[in-house]
Amino acid sequence: MFSYHLEPNLRLELLAPRHAQEIFEVVDANREHLRPRMPWVESTQSVANVEAFIATTLQQLAGNSGFQTAIRAGQEIVGVIGMHKIDWQNKSTSLGYWLAQKAQGQGIMTKACAAYISHSFTQLGLHRVEIRCATENTKSRAIPQRLGFTIEGTIREAEAIDGRYLSHVVYGLLSSEWQKTLSQA
Ligand SMILES: CC(C)(COP(=O)(O)OP(=O)(O)OC[C@H]1O[C@@H](n2cnc3c(N)ncnc32)[C@H](O)[C@@H]1OP(=O)(O)O)[C@@H](O)C(=O)NCCC(=O)NCCS
């Protein structure tokens, strides 16, 4: 099992089939919280659905197009973070993430994003990391803002979710800018 410690009791675990049951239970317990934000909530109705998702993430990894991890705080999985894909031509990736409601407010996702960004720039040699957030998703927007991203624009009505079209704010961070964020931390 590949895992990375963010802190002694907080780690990222590369998604594997053994996570499916536990992730399904977290999603199932957080439907009301996740439904307005994540488009896949309604189609996640069984452990088999999560197994199918995990299989796609393993194909993504095998195709050298990024990876996805469970976030474990203590004994419990509390969320997932990953790269949507890697655009190797332009040395660019984008991040997606979610947390269980009760795991919010502790900086867990900001730390997880920081680890992905460092890995992207330092280990993978990427040039750019992007995060897109619904305009109204203030908690999500606060994460790239905390990490020194720049607002690059708004994509209008970009995502159909929970019966509405949501506009996305595009946040971008370049490798040279990340060095500045780190030196100010
Ligand atoms: C988006 C989401 C991950 C944000 O969760 P979050 O807990 O606000 O984010 P973090 O884990 O980075 O925690 C930040 C909070 O912890 C606090 N915090 C405590 N210690 C901290 C630390 N060391 N570093 C940063 N923040 C810290 C911050 O002040 C902030 O609290 P506040 O919102 O009261 O100001 C979560 O709301 C979620 O999963 N929502 C549903 C799915 C979703 O929207 N996904 C994103 C789609 S783009």
TrEMBL record:
Signal peptide: none annotated. One of its GO terms (molecular function) is protein-N-terminal-alanine acetyltransferase activity. Pfam families: Acetyltransf_3. Keywords: Acyltransferase, Transferase. Its EC number is 2.3.1.-. Residues 10-171 form the N-acetyltransferase domain. PROSITE patterns: GNAT. GO terms for cellular component: cytoplasm. InterPro entries: Acyl_CoA_acyltransferase (IPR016181), GNAT_dom (IPR000182), Ribosomal_N-acetyltransferase (IPR051908). PANTHER family: RIBOSOMAL N-ACETYLTRANSFERASE YDAF-RELATED, RIBOSOMAL-PROTEIN-SERINE ACETYLTRANSFERASE. This is Ribosomal N-acetyltransferase YdaF.
